[in-house]
Amino acid sequence: MELWQQYSVLSVMRIRTMLDHQASYGLSQGNQRIELWWSFFRRVRSQFWMDLFGDLRDSGNFSGSHEHQCLLRFCFSSVLQKDLMNAKTSGTNTGHASCPRGVPNELYLLPHRYGSRDCGFAVEKRELDVFPEARQATELCGDQNSEEYLQQAVQQNGLQQPQDWESATELYLLVKDIARF
Length: 181
Description:
Elements: H1 3-20, H2 32-58, H3 66-90, H4 104-109, H5 125-128, H6 144-156, H7 165-179
Helix pairs in contact: 3-7
């Protein structure tokens, strides 16, 4: 599923569940701190990843095919997860003027500390079952056969799991050539 499709599905899910809970859809003044944090996160951290993946695409090393998407997930997921966990635990105590201070979990879970309120509501699992396309794949690639093939290619060629974006990029390019993707 393409990213724009995922956002569309999530928007429909959000509207549907909010309507069921008598909530409104739109801007929330009480959510400004967390929204500001996400804006800062995009500019400072995720824009790097978008640029890196865009460079892979622009250089002809990523076509968007199923195989390339699987390979990208296989090579970068652990590094991206580490980066996200670092952002989650370290927060934004950088002193940057355009970013709210605080760890994202605190901004979300303890909104009263930041002059806000909890706008969340519980959603039953059965309510989410009407959106099967939103379920996460259990396999890293969403395709057990491709994932197994990539794991074998890494093992047979004595390659290491990536520790940072540079080694993930190197692994991506090497395995892409090995697999002839």
